[in-house]
Specification:
The protein has 388 residues and is an alpha/beta fold. It has three domains: 10-137, Oxidized Rhodanese, domain 1, CATH 3.40.250; 157-274, Rhodanese-like domain (Oxidized Rhodanese, domain 1, 3-Layer(aba) Sandwich), CATH 3.40.250; 285-384, no CATH class. Helices cover 39% and strands 11% of the residues. The protein contains 15 helices and 14 strands. A five-stranded parallel sheet has the order 1-6-5-2-4. The mean pLDDT is 89.
């Protein structure tokens, strides 16, 4: 059988069954549990024959990032893809066990790294089962390292700094794939500690509206659904909870022939963590310093009055109270991300950071005791704040 080539981003289960023995075909199972399901007990015991597990969470994301499923480096993607036996000429079909859910993320990642010979299985494993096509017990297939080489492409992913610039730009339309209830803050976010809400000027297009019986709706129906939220066919930015189902919108838009589309990688998990309810994070330099000192002062889970007074002396009581209220509402990784973003916003040099670290050390010594918690915090901040 000759090598396959794809002319669409979607393939049917009948097409896959017909071509399943093609020598350059790679079938990937990119299933992840739905974040909105507290306990996912529906994971399959079976898989499509010869399927290989595509581990979005642990292998094909930046696991060191504070936010889930973050965009991996080119090197990480290359190495992980090669380990699965993927070659430069591989035809890749991705499916998941929900129908079309996380498979679209895997598809979009391959395109973002320069591999266009990739498609999503329409209807996924549920449709494969419905047609009573052959399955096998889940198992790991031995693979020989492939020669795949990732090459990051511009325009597929956007990140936090870009969202801050375009959220007020009428040339861009941000479409959020979460449910209407989550978008409108009518229900809490499934991730603990994450506030509800949406990106300013974004519009809601729940990804499930584009599906019927686990499959992508016909193009004319998808077009009607898109037209209900925007008449723009380019400069579309797709968001969701953590960059997974935003890719379902990208898949549908690609099928419609839309261009200049991209996915906001951090999506609401990042934005909702870094931006407060009053839509501000742009601290003054003094507010950034106050927040950082306050974060350090809580290293031993107890604010000393002398430390509080020292921080107030550097700003003022009103600023201190404002920053303190924000700090109290943040969890630990939100605080770290805000401090790092603040350093970038104010173009901190290593000299500025060294001065800030000296102020932190002086604050620790203000009560005459540099305890073990403060020493650990100081070492952590010394590494965290480095800009070199």
């Amino acid at each position: 059988m000759s090598n396959l080539k794809l002319d669409s981003s979607i393939v049917s289960v009948n097409w896959l069954h017909k071509n399943i023995h093609a020598p350059n075909l790679i079938i990937l199972n990119a299933t992840i549990p739905k974040v909105t399901v507290a306990k996912d007990a529906t994971l399959e015991a079976f898989q499509i024959p010869n399927a290989i597990f595509f581990d979005i969470k642990k292998k094909f994301s930046n696991v060191e990032d504070a936010f889930p499923s973050a965009f991996p480096s080119q090197e990480t993607f290359t190495n992980s893809a090669q380990e699965l036996g993927i070659n430069k000429d591989s035809v890749i079909v991705v499916y998941d066990e929900k129908g079309i859910y996380s498979s679209a993320r895997a598809w979009w990642l391959f395109k973002a790294f320069g591999h266009d010979n990739v498609a999503v299985l329409n209807g996924g494993f549920p449709e494969w089962n419905r047609k009573k096509l052959p399955v096998e017990n889940k198992k790991e297939h031995k693979t020989t390292n492939g020669n795949f080489q990732a090459k990051a492409q511009d325009g597929y992913m956007v990140f936090f700094d870009t969202i801050l610039k375009i959220q007020e730009d009428s040339k861009y339309t941000i479409l959020d794939a979460r449910s209407a209830q989550r978008f409108n803050a009518e229900v809490p976010e499934p991730r603990k500690g994450l506030r509800s809400g949406n990106i300013p000027n974004s519009k809601n297009l729940p990804f499930e509206n584009l599906l019927e019986n686990n499959q992508l709706r016909p193009k004319e129906e998808i077009q009607t659904i898109f037209n209900q939220v925007t008449n723009q066919q380019e400069n579309l930015v797709f968001s969701c909870g953590s960059g997974i189902t935003a890719c379902v919108l990208a898949l549908a838009a690609t099928e419609l022939g839309y261009t200049n589309i991209c996915v906001y990688d951090g999506s609401w998990t990042e934005y909702g963590s870094l931006i407060t309810n009053n839509k501000t994070m742009h601290w003054t330099k003094n507010e950034l310093i106050a927040y950082t000192l306050l974060y350090a002062a809580n290293s031993n889970f107890e604010e000393d009055n002398k430390e509080r007074n020292l921080i107030i002396e550097k700003v003022n009581m009103q600023t201190f109270q404002k920053i303190h209220d924000e700090f109290d509402a943040d969890n630990d990784y939100q605080s770290i991300q805000k401090i790092q973003k603040g350093l970038q916003e104010h173009d901190f040099t290593q000299k500025d950071v060294n001065k800030l670290l000296l102020e932190i050390k002086n604050m620790f010594f203000v009560d005459g005791n540099f305890d073990v918690y403060e020493r650990i915090m100081y070492r952590s901040l010394n590494k965290l704040l480095s800009v070199e």
